[in-house]
Amino acid sequence: MATRRRAEGDGLGRVWTLPNLVSAARLACVPLFLGVLFGAGDLVAAASLLAGLGATDWVDGYAARRLGQVSALGKVLDPTADRALLAAGAIGSVVYGALPVWLFVVVVVREALVSLGVLVLAARGARRVEVTRLGKAGTFALMFALPLFLFGHSGLSWHLYPEEAAWAFAALGVAGSWLAAAGYVPRARRALAGAG
After folding, report:
1. Nearest-10 Cα torsion for 174, 179, 182, 186
2. What is the Cα–Cα distance from 30 to 50, expressed in whole angstroms?
3. What digits encode the pLDDT tens for the residues 10-33?
4. pLDDT of residue 119
5. Domain ranges of the chain
6. Per-residue DSSP letters for 75-107?
7. Are 167 and 67 in contact (CB under 8 A)?
8. 172 pLDDT exceeds 90?
9. Would you state the pLDDT for residue 13?
10. Which of the residues 19, 94, 141, 168 could staple to 60 if both were Cys, CB 3.0 to 4.6 A apart?
11. pLDDT for residue 17
12. Is 70 exceeded by the pLDDT of residue 9?
């Protein structure tokens, strides 16, 4: 166990690792998703791409732990890719009328607050607050809800089924992500106190 922790600690400065490449690839797919959605106007292809990217959310973190390739870059790149995909999916969905504006606001406000908190901690030299399992689960559920909303808004004959599933995932995602955000507050306070 100590050997594994030491190996992970030794790898914190690594850049070119498999998990980081996965995170970077997911991040690079954000403009591709937007291009398919707005450029080609193909709702089904865009929703399928977003669903695939959401389903691979766990891959980079799992690979980092499994291969002992946890890195400082990866700890920033993974949540950045998640937030960028979530934001792109939410914006695309609301523009197409697939996502209600009020739900868009609920999702985006939470992401903005968490991002602001990260910036404040970094500006004050505090240690970064780790993403919790609840936070990851909330993001994961929302990443499933968004493509389902797009499928539900498409011309597919079975579009009502994904729309119903989208609401279930959205409820779980919003609840999980906001509860996780509330849990970050005391952690952020402790991090700020330790930075003083």
Report:
1. -150
2. 9
3. 455 677 888 888 888 999 999 999
4. 86
5. 2-195
6. HHHHHHHHHHHHHHHHHHHHHTTSS-HHHHHHH
7. no
8. yes
9. 60
10. 19
11. 84
12. no
b vs e for 81-119, b when ≥16 Cβ sit within 10 Å of the residue's Cβ? Answer: bbbbbbbbbbbbbbebebbeeebeebbeebbeebeebbe
CA dist 120 and 128 (Å) reads 10
| Per-residue pLDDT band at 6 (split at 50, 70, 90) | very low
For 145-160, the pLDDT digits (tens) are 999 999 998 877 887 7
Tokens, residue 29: 């797919």
| Separation CA 30–CA 47 (nearest Å) | 12
What's the token pair of residue 133?
A: 């399992």
Q: Count Cβ atoms below 10 Å from residue 130 Cβ, excluding itself.
A: 10
Q: Which residues contact 125 (CB under 8 A, 6 or more apart)?
A: 195
* DSSP secondary structure letter of residue 11: T
Q: Candidates 1.10.3470, 2.40.50, 1.20.120, 3.60.21; correct CATH number of 2-195? A: 1.20.120
Amino acid in position 18: L
Could you report the per-residue pLDDT of 122-140, keeping only the tens digit for each?
A: 888 888 888 888 988 998 8
Which amino acid is located at 173 in the chain?
G
Q: Pull the structure tokens for residue 125.
A: 């030299």
The tokens describing 5, both together, are: 């922790």
Residues found in the chain: 196
Token output for 1: 């166990």
Which stretches of the chain are assigned E, i.e. beta strand? none
Q: What is the DSSP string of 171-196?
A: HHHHHHHHHHHHHHHHHHHHHHHHH-
Quote the CA–CA distance of 147 and 152 in Å, as a whole number: 8
